[in-house]
């Protein structure tokens, strides 16, 4: 008896506009955890506390059925989808795409604690505050890593729920990207994810300004 194997589509490029009411929901994280997709963020603009929609340019890879289901999920949320196409069909047009302006002050380094060689000590201090299942940080995606789905891998490799609360990633690969992330998971998962980011050599800052216990974002 033969079985039908899932069909993989070529990567799909889509710009999604996320309504303000979903800014505190891990929409992109759920594309990975619920549908088994690989999602690479190619460009993004999301301002924390802003009433306007945020937008993300995504390269989405996976089985055809899961891709279809994930797009239906986004549309059900009222997330506007544009530029849906097979990736190699739209690459030639990317230079002519319109990208909203990204505020320059979003890409300035915040005065937080840099986690490099001493990140383990800082992580233990964070855990000692009682935040054993939540970590808030700012992550710099260096320009050499724009083609690597780093945030997607935090979900697929380490089982985290990742909410992007602010983002500034210019489509120009000469610039670094910045993401404010709200990470949910067990202490061991959070620790392992920081080790992974350390191995990649990506700058990280803990955000100590939001120590709270709201757990509404966990699936």
Topology:
Elements: E1 12-18, H1 27-35, E2 38-46, E3 54-61, H2 64-77, E4 80-86, H3 87-90, E5 113-114, H4 119-128, E6 134-141, H5 150-158, E7 161-169, E8 177-184, H6 187-200, E9 204-206
Antiparallel strand pairs: 1-3, 1-4, 2-3, 2-7, 5-9, 6-8, 6-9, 7-8
Helix pairs in contact: 1-2, 1-5, 5-6
Keywords:
single chain; 219 residues; alpha+beta; Alpha-Beta Plaits; 9-stranded antiparallel β-sheet; globular; disordered C terminus
Give a short overview:
Residues 10-84, 133-207 form the NIL domain. The chain is an alpha+beta fold and 219 residues long.
Structure description:
- InterPro entries: ACT-like_dom_sf, NIL_domain.
- Residues 10-84, 133-207 form the NIL domain.
- This is NIL domain-containing protein.
- The protein is an alpha+beta fold.
- It has one domain (1-88, 117-218): Alpha-Beta Plaits.
- Helices cover 27% and strands 28% of the residues.
- A nine-stranded antiparallel β-sheet has the order 4-1-3-2-7-8-6-9-5.
- Strand 7 (161-169) and strand 8 (177-184) form a beta hairpin.
- Helix 1 crosses helix 5 (150-158).
- The longest helix has 14 residues, at 64-77.
- The radius of gyration is 17 Å and the shape is globular.
- The N and C termini lie far apart (37 Å).
- Mean pLDDT is 78; it is low at 84-115 and 212-219.
Please write the string of helix (H) and strand (E) elements.
Answer: EHEEHEHEHEHEEHE
Percent of sequence in beta strands: 25-35%
The CATH architecture name reads 2-Layer Sandwich
Enter the CATH topology name. Answer: Alpha-Beta Plaits
What profile does the largest beta sheet have? 9 strands, antiparallel
CATH class: Alpha Beta
The CA-CA distance between the termini, in Å, is: 37 Å
Report the CATH superfamily: ACT domain
- What is the number of E strands? 9
- Please give the domain count: 1
Structural class: alpha+beta
- What fraction, in percent, of the residue positions are helical? 25-40%
Number of helices: 6
Largest sheet strand order: 4-1-3-2-7-8-6-9-5
Radius of gyration: 17 Å
Note the overall shape: globular
Mean pLDDT: 78
pLDDT under 50 segments (min length 5)? 84-115, 212-219
Pfam families: NIL (PF09383)
Protein name: NIL domain-containing protein
Domain NIL: 10-84, 133-207
InterPro entries: ACT-like_dom_sf (IPR045865), NIL_domain (IPR018449)
């Amino acid at each position: 008896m033969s079985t039908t194997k899932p069909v993989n589509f070529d990567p799909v490029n889509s710009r999604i506009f996320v309504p303000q009411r979903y800014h505190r929901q891990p929409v992109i994280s759920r594309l990975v955890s619920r549908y088994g997709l690989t999602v690479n963020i190619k460009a993004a603009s999301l301002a924390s506390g802003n009433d306007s929609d945020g937008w993300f340019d995504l390269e989405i890879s996976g089985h055809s059925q899961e891709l279809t289901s994930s797009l239906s999920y986004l549309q059900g949320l009222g997330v506007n989808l544009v530029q849906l196409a097979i990736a190699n069909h739209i690459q030639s047009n990317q230079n002519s795409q319109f990208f909203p302006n990204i505020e320059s002050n979003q890409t300035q380094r915040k005065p937080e604690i840099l986690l490099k060689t001493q990140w383990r000590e800082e992580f233990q201090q964070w855990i000692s505050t009682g935040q054993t299942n939540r970590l808030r940080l700012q992550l710099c995606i260096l320009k050499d890593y724009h083609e690597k789905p780093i945030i997607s891998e935090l979900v697929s490799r380490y089982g985290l729920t990742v909410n992007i609360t602010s983002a500034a990633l210019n489509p120009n690969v000469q610039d670094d990207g910045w993401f404010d992330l709200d990470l949910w998971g067990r202490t061991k998962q959070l620790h392992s994810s920081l080790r992974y980011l350390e191995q990649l050599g990506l700058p990280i800052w803990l955000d100590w300004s939001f120590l709270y216990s709201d757990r509404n974002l966990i699936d």
